[in-house]
Each structure stands twice: as structure tokens, then as C-alpha cells.
Amino acid sequence: MEILRVEGVNKSFGGLRALNNVNFSVEEGTVQAIIGPNGAGKSTFLNCMIGRLAPDTGTVMFGDISLTGMKPYEINQVGVSRVFQTPEIFSELSLIENIMIPTMAKRDGSFALHAFKRLDQDAEVRDKALHMLEDVGLVEKRDDISGSLSRGDKRRLELAMCLSQDPKLLLLDEPTAGMSRADTNNTIDLLKRIGDRGITKVVIEHDMHVVFSLAEKVTVLAQGAIIAEGKPEEIKGDPRVQEAYLGGAHL
Amino acid sequence: MVTKISPARDYLLFGVFAIAVLTMPVWLAPIGAGYPDLLQKFAIFGLFATGFNLLFGLTGYLSFGHAAFLGVGSYTAVWSFKLLGMNPIPAAILAVVTSGVFALAIGYVSLRRSGIYFSILTLAFAQMSYNLAYSVLTPITNGETGLRVLESDPRLFDSSANADGPLISNLFGIEMTGYAGFYFCAVVLLIGFFIAQRIFRSPFGIMLRAVKTNQNRMNYTGLNPRPYTLAAFVISGMYAGLAGALMCITDPLAGAERMQWTASGEVVLMTILGGAGTLLGPILGAALIKYFENIFSAFNEQTLHEVFSFLPDFLEYPVVSVAGLFVGEGWHLTLGVLFMLIVIFLPGGIMEGVSRIGRLFKRSSSKAEPSGATAPAE
User: Fold this and answer.
1) B218 at the A interface (CB within 8 A)?
2) Phi/psi class of residue B73: alpha, beta or left (left: φ > 0; alpha: ψ in -120 to 50)?
3) What is the value of pTM for the model shown?
4) Domain A1-79+168-251: which CATH class?
5) 3-state DSSP call for residue B28?
6) Most CB contacts within 10 A, which of A62, A118, B67, B310?
7) What confidence tens digit (pLDDT) does each residue in B19-74 have?
8) Would an 8 Å CB–CB cutoff place A123 in contact with chain B?
9) Is A116 within 8 Å of B202 when comparing Cβ atoms?
10) What's the ipTM?
């Protein structure tokens, strides 16, 4: 079953055509990668899906809900989470608080005025957050201020924040950008492990190593248009892809 | 951080704070601050700063127009005296409601922007209110003269209109001046502090900190920051309104100068001086500024000569003339220097200094007995 369906999306910035009639769909429970050279429109495409940018024309359907025109927090409330290129976390708060916030957002909706009960006595939220931190291996640091974490740990924390909401669809914008090889491999393992939860994932990635070890289907964007789509092995051998993306070099 | 503070410790903190506030007349007497007039100011401005801190300390939105709510609260309280009688309780309740409505309107518009634009918008609203109170709204505010309670006012529930002497707010016969007035303000401050403490530890409080830290992440986490900031703004405006009402309860007179931008700036200073985002800081800051204002400004050359009389004459005169710049009319200079020193060396305010000293003691005690002292509390 299709969980996400993008039809005829166009987006221009002034005279620059960033997205040119893009059609795209994601099957439920799969991992799909979007690759492409710099400036191909990958981030614009993601931003159009998540409500940060409004597409000029076209529709984005999540199941039978239209995401076009919805606010980011509304999109999240229907079950779409996003990991950013540079980790977006609550850097002045402790790790456990960082996870408790999305957990409460999932449970209580986009606004709830719980001004008189104590947060630390909300066992349900606390247990869930601790469990989540255990899953990503950050439980020892639960009371540290998250701004002091290393970049790799910040990324894992952000991932844990998204996962704590049990999203139906997880969008990852270059989840291994700027990471060491070891950290990259850890992240891949982590992403594979959470694949067991049946979360559909869309990954935007530069690193071919990551793409080929995660994705079941790869979409190639170049100059705002989709030039190829298929299984990783097919994409590897596609001459158009090699031309556009790798300048003709072999993978 | 926050999650580690147990409820028992919070009650202890509140208990210690309550005792400290209620015994202020005793322990502040030796430093010359034990008289009711100043004690009332400590309590009133402590409440004002506590409310301001709920907005600025938690969400990071710096309002430069909080004095407007102080003024609205004051006018409402005086009108309550005029129409309903001199009981402070309806005056306080009505002031909270009116300033809350006011804050809702101003906040709804101002919170569309953040950062410096938000500050400017709130400042503009406050100056607008100030000028309106002086000119167009004279029928309500009595313009320059200020609003006061008159013998001829209806005062519905004051059947036994006491014709002799000036009209003073009274709580079922207890006149709200002197120490009685201070204790009334102190109890209101304690209630305000208790509510602030609950908000700090609540899920709502955490959401407000989240607003301060990363609104982008908040949006993509399924949370709408707008109602959170608006709620914080309204609550904070209600605190200011209540503080304004207390001013009129202890002295039933309301003037427009209470809404001027200097008054808004003062509460910003108090909060930053004490430590924004901490519970006790703003109250300490408020007390410190009011203490300086009242004590240092009362110093004159004569008192300085007495203080430095132990010095030989050729030293005494230059010392007195230099020190003279910092007292009397020049107390603002003292305040300015102190503020600069704190902001530069203790960006977290007085409370940062306190916690640094606390950590110093903890470290030296954990060196003395390496086992146990540093065990993390579960």
C-alpha cells in the first residue's frame, strides 16, 4: 500500500526552477532513498513534503490526508517525523527532557496546558523516554545537557526523539552528514534496527555506502527532475545516473 | 537538571522561602530595611519580577512593556475601591482578570514576532497605554492628577463609610498599611511564588523552555509554539496586574507614570540581576534594586562623613567626595556599576554566583570524604 504519494509538484524560486513536475510514491514499510548531485532539489523536495515550503502546484498525499497547506506541527501530528541535516534538538535541556517533549506531544496533541502537575511524576512519559534512550544507547547520559553531546550523539538523540512518537513515516535529511566512518556505520545499524518497527523511511543521502546498505528503492533527482528510479543494483548500473551524478565514473 | 529536583526538595525550598519572607521585618532591620514601606515594595516588586520571569526566563521573549499591565492592574484596583468598596480581595481579583484580558490582546498581536521585534512591539503598546492614560482616557484614569478614591464614590459594599481620615484599603477592618499591608503583600507573593514553582516543574514549563531553545524543532515535533507563548504572556501579565493592584492596596492611588517605559525597564533589570530563569533570582534582584533605591538614595554627605570619620582628614575628604557620586541622587550610578559587573562576571545573575559558591563547597566536602558525597540521586 502506498503511504506517500507526490503528484506533479513544481517549485520555483524566482527564475530558478527547483522542482519540475515531480511524481513520487513510497510503499508502506519500505526504505526509499533520494539521491542526486548538489543543487538537484533534494532538500527543496523534502521541504515541500513536510510543509516548510508550499509547492507552486501539485499535491502531497499522506495516506488519504493531503499534506499541502498543512502546518509543520499538524503534519507531525498525523504521523510524519523529520530528522534534519544538522541535528535540531533542545540543546539547553537534558537528554531525558528532549525525549519527554515529543512523547508528550504525541500523547497530548499540539497544545496542552498542564501547568500544575509535576513532569517528573508522569511515570508513563518518563518510562517511555528512558526506554527510548536505552534503545539508542544514551541512557547513561540522560541528565546531561544535550548541547554538550558529540555530533553523532546529537544525531542519535534526534532520531530517538522522532522514534519516540512512533511515526508512520520518517524523513531523514542526510542522517550521516559530517560523521566519521564508525559513526556512520553505527547510524546505519541503528536505522536498520528501527526498520523492524515497520516505520516507512525516506532518506536523502550523499553517501553511496549508506544508500546501498539501507535502501530498497532509490530515486535519482537531477536539476529538479527525477531521472531514474529502481532497485539499488539497477541504479548503480544506469548510465544516465552515472553521467548526471558521478560525472561518468563507475561505482 | 529540572527532572532531578524531587517534590520534597521543592516543598523545603518553598518552606524556607516562606519563613524568610514572613520574618523579613526581623532580619532586615539591622541593615535598615525593616520598615513596612520598603518591605511592601520588596513583596510587590518580587511578585512583579516573578511574573516577568515566567515569560522572559522560560520562553526567552523579552517584553519591554510589562509596566502597562502594572498600570492596568492599578487602575482596576482603584476603580474596584471606588465602586465596590475598600476590600482588597475583589480589587486583586478584578485586577488579575483585567490585566489578563489586556495581556491576551497585546500578546496576540506582539507574539507574531520574536526577538527584538517582539520587544519593540510590547514597548510600543506600553507607551501607547501610558499616553492614552494621560490624555484620551482621562475620564477613566484622571490623567495627570492620578486616580484616587473619594468620599463621594458609591463604594457599594462599604455601608459604614468612615467619614473621618483618608480612605485606606481594609481587609474586613484590618487597614492595609504598615505591617498589616506588608503581610498581605507577602502572602500574595507566596501564593504567586508557589504557582510559579509549579509552572517551572510542570510539562507546561518544559514546553516553555523548549520554545526558548528551539522553536523549529518544536514545530516539527507536533507542538504549536504560539498558544504556549501566549499562555505564558497572559499569566505573566496577570502577575504584573496583581502587583499593580497591591501597590494600590497599600496606597490607594494610581498614576500613569507607573506605565512608563522606565518601569518596564526596571523589571527587566531586576530579573537579569537576580538571574533569569531561576525561581528565586528575580525576587532577589527586585529586593536588591528597591533596597539601593531607598537606602543609597537616602545617603547624603553628612552620613558619608560619619561613615568615613575613622580616616584622617586629608583622606576623608577625597574619599567622601568620590563616594558621594554613588549615593543620594547618584544611586543610579551604583546600580549601573553593579549591573555591569554582574552581567560581565555572572551572566546568570546573582543565582549563578550562589550556585558557584554552592558547588565550591560541595567539591571541597567531596574531597574530604570521597565516598558517598557524589553519589547521584535517583
Assistant:
1) yes
2) alpha
3) 0.90
4) alpha beta
5) coil
6) B67
7) 999 999 989 888 888 889 999 999 999 999 999 999 999 999 999 999 999 999 99
8) no
9) yes
10) 0.88
